[in-house]
Amino acid sequence: MLLLVRLPPPYSDWIFGKASPALELNRQTGMITFWQYGWLTGRLKSKKSVNFMEFIPYLQPLVSPTPTSAGCNIIFVHKDDKSLQFSSVGLANFTSIADGLAWWDFIQCYMDVAEPLPNAPTLEVCRHLDPTTAKHDLAIGRDPRYWRDMSEQEYQAAEQAMAETISRVYH
Predict the structure, then answer these.
(1) Residues 4, 13: contact at Cβ < 8 Å?
(2) What is the DSSP letter of 113?
(3) What percent of the chain lies above the pLDDT cut of 90?
(4) Cβ-contact 100, 57 below 8 angstroms
């Protein structure tokens, strides 16, 4: 087995498969795609796309014996096929229920093509590619490099303002 792990890329990819996504939220189609791979080979077993509107979110408080890992999780479960589900674990780390609710709101805004993309640093590089967002940004005069051109102090102030808004809106 050790020899198989150390094979050069063309052979290891052929045997184990390439690293691939397990989940995709596609804003343009409104679909969530799940990929399932074999546990040993890593080969694609199935691929299923489902409409985002068919998922029901559940807020799950996380409690542990130590106070350092308490928080919450959001689980999205398909209304008909309970095997189709994903959660915020690995995608976001929430320390409060308000953070979890804000993330759910963020996902809803992201998947709604009638609304512009959420104003987040990670989405700034693709805002101009989304027609609704590009039109909205042009109408309000938003700087295309709004997040990228911020100083460290401005970024921290914006981050603090968002945290205060989340605390005010969701508590």
Answers:
(1) no
(2) T
(3) 30
(4) no
